[in-house]
Please model this.
Amino acid sequence: MVALGLLGLAAGTLSACAPTSLVVQGSTVTVASAQPFTSFNDQTTYGNTAANTGVVGAVTSGFTYYDDGPTLVRDESFGHIEVVSQNPFTVSYTVNAGVTWSDGQPVDGADLLLAWAANSGHLNSEGFNPARYTDAETGQFDPFPTGTVYFDGASHSGLQYVSALPELGADGRSITLVYDEYFVDWELAFDVGLPAHVVAEKSFAVTATEDETAGAVAKRLVIDAIAGGEAARLSTLSQVWNSGFAAEGAGPFVGSGPYSIAEIVPNESVTLAANPLYTGDRRPRYETVVVRTVTDPLEAVTALAAGEVDVIAPAPSAEVSRALDAVDGIHVVEGQSAMFEHLDLQFSAGKNPTFDNPLLREAFLATVPVAEIVELSGGVARDSFLFAPDGAVPPRPDLPKAKRLIAQAGVAAPPVCILFDPSNPRRLAEFLLVKEGAEKAGFVVTDCSASDWQGFLGVPNAYDAALFAWNETTTAVSAPEARLLSTSTVSNFSNYANPTVDGLLAELAVTDGAEQQQALLEQIDAQLKDDAYGMPLYQFAAVVAHTDGIDGIAPSALSGLLWNVWQWQPAQSGG
Model:
């Protein structure tokens, strides 16, 4: 199925007419990020954060992206998508000739095939449980047993329905995916991720031959390993794909977008430089973009006022609003984000066995002072894990009910350790409110916070409950599967498992029609409430502030602040 023509194409040098540069020489913009950049691979469990996705989106290209509508836009300057058959449902993807990675290697079939392998789950060793090999201190994977193949990709985003080995085209730049059954969100299921040749070069000793460049050899090794089912090589490739692109790693971090990563200072900043090899439509204006980590919202405002950063998107609060009002020469945009805060409970493998008991889950949720937390946040109360806010009134704590359920469970002083970000003042305040309410009912609440808290989500025996936010990045109707399906390793951090929900999710994934989809989602939502899955808290308000010297900023609820960083430019009028 793999066309040999790919190898000859990869070995050569492609030429294309470079578009006129729009870069303003010497221009720099500095952006404050509430989270550090931790991984170049935002498709892994460890790397899937809003901060990582924003940076990765600026330095990579793909077949689609969301604008600020949000509307899903097809980037025809990168490549073309075509449905070639309805039965069986078949889609082809073709990268345009001349599209390269930032090191000059072509984006081609090897990259497309690796994207399928990494995100379909079909090459993973059957029955392997990665949770047993997660480092308790870093949240990253320890080495797997010899010969284990496990790609920690987005295996519940649709490619699980493409079980057959895809076919690479004779042009060397295309791939054809045949779905086992129709998948409602097929248009969101596939895109290019990491460069195959870099993954191979990090995995094996790769050298050029008389007939092939080192890059071509690396690409061939990836294709041969996947097409031939070579377990030993796939094992190495998968572990490098999972863990070889952390921000503190040695690089290289090779992208295909309007910007390239020029420098990373772990936990402090990441510097992007305009990519001179980029030939697509998203041509950058700023020569340099610095993304600097500023976790405290008020510190971000102070940095903006002092001219240390040019753009901020702090978590809104009354204090932040007052601080911004005192800063001259800035532009402030307010709205609602696609991010919502929630309290998750561990159904199994918690630090304590407390929430293995459904009575104690229900009791704990009955103590949460949701209204106080919403007021603290400045957000909008949310009463569902699946549906956006609709004016719901926050539930009041019911301490008598909680005490009655604890007594019924027969557990004295049930312990609960909560994971959260200790550097975020709002989260600390939320933790203290949750702790105060729960201890009134008889729970013993302790602090499981960690500076790198994202890496601990889903780690066995690390915590019992977690305070954090889901950042919605897609309009896919099947998106809840990644969090709620019992077999999902993507983001089912709670170890939630309900056969009824599994069945509803499977039906949802193949169902067209808004009314039918709505009905299925309502059934899932009701089951989550019956299971005391957790507590949705509030939808974040969104605030973006920037100096008047910048034009083009248009925040997207789904794609974040950096989605159109290539359109940002120094203001023509200077303010």
User: Anything to note?
Assistant: Residues 1-16 have pLDDT under 50 and may be disordered. The chain has three domains: 5-17+39-243, 266-335+542-570, 337-540.
